[in-house]
Structures are given as C-alpha cells and as structure tokens.
Write a structure and sequence with these properties.
Length: about 120
Amino acid sequence: VQLVESGGGVVQPGGSLRLSCVASGFIFSDERMSWVRQAPGMAPEWVSGINRRSTSSYYADSVKGRFTISRDNAKNTVYLQMNSLKPEDTAVYYCNAERVIATFGPLHPSDYWGQGTQVTVSS
C-alpha cells in the first residue's frame, strides 16, 4: 500500500488549498476513502470521507461547509478542497481507506500510511 499526499502549504486565514492523495497497492475504486489530520501535540482527527462512487460524502462538524472531498477513481486519487481556512486547521493531513482506519485506528499501523502533507494557516 502506498499513499502520497500533496498540496499542503502555508496560507493566510481565509485562504484555500487543495490537497491530493494518490493511492496504489490496492483496488482504489473498491474502498471508501477518508482524510485524517493531526495537529501538533493532538490526537488524530477524522476530517472527511467519501464512498466508492462519490455519491455520498461526510464531514466533521469542524470543517463542514468549508471543506469538500472528491475522488477520481480513474486516477486513484482523492482530493480535499479546503476553503475559508482557519488557524485551527493547521495540521498534517493524511488519507487512507476507511477500512484501514476502522480496523487499526487513525495513523496505525505506520506502514499503511503516507507521509502526509503539512497545512499551516497563519497570518
């Protein structure tokens, strides 16, 4: 399993970023996918998920109305469009199959996760 997240960066409050996660080593189109984030010194937090055919998506209350998840099964890629960013969105963002998260918990085991992408929201 390989997951490569990208698209993070430093942005001012109110700004936007679009994260991408390219997956390989499993049948991407068979898996519901999620984004998880971890802020410094904090426990991982589930952010958003999407079903296999993009007919249903769901969000943590903290990002609802600001973030949009999407996927392209032809490209084995899941995206997270983040708008109206706040300083509290600062974290490393990771993606994975929901099956992995449900079985092992977020960010476990480490071999099943990518390096993540850093998002920093600061003026």
